[in-house]
Amino acid sequence: MRLYVLAGLAALTAFAQPASAEVKRIGPPTAAIARATVVPAGSDIIYVSGITPAPTSAAGATPVTFGDTKTQTLSILTQIQDILKAEGASMGDVFMMRVLLVGDPAKEGKMDFGGMMEGYKTFFGTADQPNKPARITSQVAALVAPGMMAEIEVQAVKPK
């Protein structure tokens, strides 16, 4: 009987642990991103396609507007958060991120890395959600619609 109780407690403890605790995150805790992440074998992984920002202009407006890089990053990460939540995961379960930024005309055609980071820091490395993914950020010539300056894809571990 005692063995079954201990096994049951061990099973409950295993289910109580968030999946993000299983991911090994390598790098200094003060860095904005993990230098690397290690996902345990046998983990379920969610692959979220590149997500683009929701329009900030009224429906049917021409041209369609999406806001600045920070606004677009917040829109995208909110959409990703909703996708993960629907699958039983959270932003804390994200272990890899790819960010594509278009040059901002207001910044002489250079990507607005600072604006992206302002939006990013709302979701990662906070007191409520301290986990940070490994990440790449690249400037690209264009995205699928004029005015889009950001697209983000992520991979996350799904809690068991």
Task: Please provide a written account of the structure.
This protein is of the alpha+beta class and 160 residues long. It has one domain: RutC-like (60s Ribosomal Protein L30, Chain: A, 2-Layer Sandwich). It contains 3 helices and 6 strands; from the N terminus they run αβββαβαββ. The protein has helices spanning 2-16, 69-86, 113-120, and strands spanning 24-26, 36-38, 44-51, 94-102, 134-140, 150-158. The protein has a 4-stranded mixed beta sheet with strand order 3-6-4-5. The protein has a two-stranded antiparallel sheet with strand order 1-2. Strand 4 (94-102), helix 3 and strand 5 (134-140) form a beta-alpha-beta unit. Helix 2 packs parallel to helix 3 (113-120).
Biggest β-sheet strands, sense, barrel: 4 strands, mixed
Q: State the helicity in percent bands.
A: 25-40%
Count of DSSP-assigned helices: 3
The N- to C-terminal Cα distance equals 26 Å
Highest CATH level, the class: Alpha Beta
How many structurally independent domains?
1
CATH topology: 60s Ribosomal Protein L30, Chain: A
So what's the overall shape?
globular
The class by helix and strand makeup works out as alpha+beta
What average pLDDT do the residues reach?
Answer: 88
Let me know the CATH homologous superfamily. Answer: RutC-like
State which percent range the strand residues make up: 15-25%
Task: Kindly state the number of beta strands.
Answer: 6
Strand order, main sheet: write it out.
3-6-4-5
C-alpha Rg (nearest Å): 19 Å
What CATH architecture do you see?
A: 2-Layer Sandwich
Order of helices and strands: HEEEHEHEE
